[in-house]
Amino acid sequence: MAKVSMKINGQVVTGEVEGRTLLVQFLREGQGLTGTHVGCDTSQCGACVVHVDGQAVKSCTLLALEAEGADVRTIEGMAAPDGTLSPLQQAFQDHHGLQCGFCTPGMVMSAAALLAENPRPTETEVRHYLEGNICRCTGYHNIVKAVLAASGQDVSRFGGIAAE
Amino acid sequence: MPKDGIGASSKRREDVRFLTGRGRYTDDINLRGQAHVHFLRSDIAHGRIRSIDTAAAAAMPGVLRIFTAADLAGVGGIPCGWQVTDRFGKPMQEPKHPVLAEGKVRHVGDPIAAVVAETAEQARDAAEAIVVDIEDLPAVLDMRAALAEGAPKVHDDLTGNLCYDWGFVEENREAVNAAFATAHHVTTLDLVNNRLVANPMEPRVAVGDYDFATDHHTLYTTSQNPHVIRLLMGAFVLGIPEHRLRVVAPDVGGGFGSKIYHYAEEAFVTFAAKALRRPVKWTASRSEAFISDAQGRDHVGRIELALDAEGNFLALRTETYANMGAYLSTFAPSIPTWLHGTLMAGNYRTPLIYVNVKAVFTNTVPVDAYRGAGRPEATFQLERVIDKAAREIGMDPVELRRRNFVTEFPYQTPVAVVYDTGDYNATLDRLLQIADREGFEARRLDSAHHGRLRGFGIAHYIEACGIAPSNLVGQLGARAGLYESATVRVNATGSISVFTGSHSHGQGHETTFAQVVADMIGIPAAQVDIVHGDTSNTPMGMGTYGSRSLAVGGSALVKATTKIVNKAKKIAAHLLEAAEADIELKDGKFAVAGTDRSVDWGAVCLAAYVPHNYPLESLEPGLEETAFYDPSNFTYPAGAYACEVEVDPETGKVTICRFVAADDFGNVVNPMIVEGQVHGGLAQGIGQALLENCVYDGNGQLLSGSFMDYAMPRADDLPFYEVDHSCATPCTHNPLGVKGCGEAGAIGSPPAVVNAVVDALQRAGYAHVTHIDMPLTPARVWAAMHAN
Amino acid sequence: MHDFEFVKPATLAEAVAALGAEGAQALAGGMTLLPAMKQRLAAPERLVSLTGIADLRGVTPAPGRLRIGGATPHAVVARAAAAHYPALARLAGQIGDPAVRNRGTIGGSLANNDPSACYPAAVLASGATIHTDRRQIAADDYFQGMFATALDEGEVITAVDFPVPQVAAYVKFAQPASRFALVGVFVAKFAEGARVAVTGASEEGVYRWTEAEEALNTHFAPTEFSHLDVPADGMIADLHGGADYRAHLVKVIARRAVIAALG
């Protein structure tokens, strides 16, 4: 076992891990941050995406020890402390960008990384950027729409019904 | 009506917890003292177990105990929930499905041993040290070969590999053959409905717990129907009475059918928790899901359509081989039969239909319902053969469909079911209007200018949802009823807790069910909470699948709420010193008709629980009602879909340019959620048509065993869809007039896509391409173009 | 996965020393190695992370050349190489998905030499030089078949030095599930001649398509492949496409790469 220390959602945490402990295991099992999910074992689905030093990474394919000293942000750190959703999270609710919710944390973290890089993406750019995040419920329509809406663009031309 | 009642696109209340990482899925549950199990699974498709040596593994660090079949004395097999009777009146062949392999392994992934250890990694480490000596047997894979004389047998104690040979309607067989013999034109099509893997994003998880002090068992599991699991596992596998067995399905990350069934892993963790006096947890990896979750579709067969000189359908005949896999999953036998044969009339007045289905055991993962379940297979056969027939007789495929539409309702099909209502011309008109078929030629020329082949395809579908009338399914072999239940508990201050037997795993029941109750009473939906997924606090329910939740579970909810309203009116009449018959409920107030005297909802609820001024001599205090609803018929959602594609002639790659869906779901409670259901179904249907394929090699090894080879639809594979549900004919036999919307997209879209691709190739001069089997991968499309 | 000892040295010398132990393996981005370890297809006893060695990261332009540190993630190459070697930057920007590109490295990709990976095509078509802790290896000598390279046990790729062509482009026809190349072709035109590298297609891994190079040397134009014969023999056949299909795609994709290069 080795000691690992990192900042998660602004708080410094320390824990004991094996060499093989993945960051996602450290988050879920070590820290009780179960919002980050595991949906595959081949680094394809993206349910486990978190930000490490500001970059989207798949936490199922990163050793916890590789995140030593890093600044990690998870889905639990995306809303305001009082629970107010971020504009991106709110857009997902307003445009019904989630159903079962399992892919949602990774989807939100990837979309947040996209908007940080590219504040006004096109539809094509959103679809390409999200190619590493698989959703089985929504058919992506409302996810893409939510991301475009969160970037401040008018999404009425894409059809579909938003929440009242 | 409150603004968040029926018909409102209310925001989903589920979303906040999912968007902030505060959902509670089964894998998020960790009990004190919990141990972990890893299943050692067969890596060959078919073999005889000579010996299993666990001695070295048992000595590995952290190992608590290793179980094989020999350690499961008294544990029953996994039961099948439906018995199909064959065309000769005999019951299907039903093999035992042991929790851990007994004597033989029958598919890659069949569990041989279960290692329970302190940690999941220790359990897996130890599983690698188990020595299994297996005699390799030839794998049974091809369904026709499996039925040949002398083929190796999946189950030694059965007669061959045929589960059943089903004919429907058997009495029509000769009449159908006679109609074919004299028909003006017969169109024949051989096709494959590709095997799929449901792949909900949450892999399956099960946690077993046992309290020796009270002899109570608890199972937390990723299920679409916790009561069904309690029934099957308690009664048939482990012999635990219902009052000592609690099954909890908390937030569930999608199911699409694959989480209906009772699985061996659930029974094992429940059993082992008692054996070890410790909670036992199992979390599937995705790789494990590929070889242990029931798979979908996998039909191979032929369909023939007989027409007269004017294009009227005279008769329809199919011969289908349906893969059951190695064992019968919970509802497997019913999928290619009662959920398939009964839909072969489609939207059309075909007077004579005969469906033959041979269900076959093979050395593959069991096959069961997957989104649509039997109906996509029926729709695909029918809508493909109609398109082919139109081409052969030189008629516009749209006109050929119109000519044969059912237009009068109720309509008794020749395959048992009665369509209560519908308007297929209306959805078709709406579809063609949105899809702008008139403008297609201009778009095609523009594509051609860019070197692309453009095609336009349509398909219709009808499905039987709202499953199902219990007495009917009982006659058809179901070993359960298919009603639904609801308890409406009104609290003293007027807030309401609803307990439903339906189960939401993405459908948003917590929002829509609250809309229904709030609307009926006239209070804000925020006053209503929906509780589901726990057998300890919800009434007996059959769960969520078959687009049944609103049609059946919602109807139970309406029934229970109606009881509440009726009792509340009695209380109000007492408080208002008026006759009960004069009391009207409107906008959350009980008023005496024709007066300005009223008492509001909250006051009535308070009176029910603080009955100081209350008719105690004639009415019990309290305000809580339970109702069970058993539907009198199926519901029949129907619709018309159009797909426009471009084919890259150099690579064969198909791009979906537009996809339009015009559905008739009857009444709609939350339009936003309904559209979302259609979107998701379309993605899965387009996935089946273009991307997804579960493939075994000649030895029964799964070639598409991960997302590296099983092509899941991604955001950049799909377009924005154009979805419409304005052509609504409300269901005539349930109180909400709803039909169900969860599966439609996956049912109607595959033939629309394939029809569009064939159209593109035909228009480009590839006259020999009359069909391509799904998925229409670039390689397959290119090969079809260059066949000959 | 099996457990292992994890070390994260700060210098190349320490890394090379740590890799000298029995059962030691280098860990770059881990995008291939960690999934393989999860499947228990690989079980190193010691993982030596290269991500803490600052010298191994970065994109350094020089006249006519571009040097990329061995542990530079794809996302960094996609950004930093864009002004200097756009075709290479675009290739890097198409590998995997954004989260994979933030971790996966050029050295990791080349050391693994997956027959469907993108980077080998760029390295081979560019005639790049692979620098290791102990020597320099020309691209033509480096790739030795599917998952096989000229690297010795414990040898670490420190940098890849690319000569920048006059024009170049990479076109990937993606395998629909993994998004790796079903066929990918990198075309580069240098003063000395054209180089064409094909990935995803051959059972031998990435290879130079010399017939296409000769045709392009005569006339660098997209019309020149129609007469070439690409045999299906030795092409990969799997559930995503047969050998004949891949052979066909090589011509189609190569032509598209030339068109893109001429942009």
Automatic annotation (TrEMBL), chain A:
Keywords: 2Fe-2S, Iron, Iron-sulfur, Metal-binding, Oxidoreductase
Pfam families referenced in this protein's UniProt entry, alphabetically: Fer2, Fer2_2
Protein name: (2Fe-2S)-binding protein
Organism: Ruixingdingia sedimenti
Domain 2Fe-2S ferredoxin-type: 2-78
UniProtKB/TrEMBL annotation, chain B:
Residues of the Aldehyde oxidase/xanthine dehydrogenase a/b hammerhead domain: 20-138
Keywords: Molybdenum, Oxidoreductase
Record-linked Pfam families: Ald_Xan_dh_C (PF01315), MoCoBD_1 (PF02738), MoCoBD_2 (PF20256)
InterPro entries attached to this UniProt entry: Ald_Oxase/Xan_DH_a/b, Ald_Oxase/Xan_DH_a/b_sf, Ald_Oxase/xanthine_DH-like, AldOxase/xan_DH_MoCoBD1, AldOxase/xan_DH_MoCoBD2, AldOxase/xan_DH_Mopterin-bd_sf
Protein name: Xanthine dehydrogenase family protein molybdopterin-binding subunit
UniProtKB/TrEMBL annotation, chain C:
SMART domains registered for this protein in UniProt: CO_deh_flav_C
Sequence intervals crossing the membrane: none
UniProt keyword terms in alphabetical order: FAD, Flavoprotein, Oxidoreductase
Keyword Glycoprotein appears in the UniProt entry: no
PROSITE patterns: FAD_PCMH
InterPro entries attached to this UniProt entry: CO_DH_flav_C, CO_DH_flav_C_dom_sf, Diverse_Substr_Oxidored, FAD-bd_PCMH, FAD-bd_PCMH-like_sf, FAD-bd_PCMH_sub1, FAD-bd_PCMH_sub2, Mopterin_DH_FAD-bd
Residues annotated as domain FAD-binding PCMH-type: 1-167
Family annotation (PANTHER family): XANTHINE DEHYDROGENASE SUBUNIT C-RELATED
Descriptive protein name: FAD binding domain-containing protein
Taxonomic source organism: Ruixingdingia sedimenti
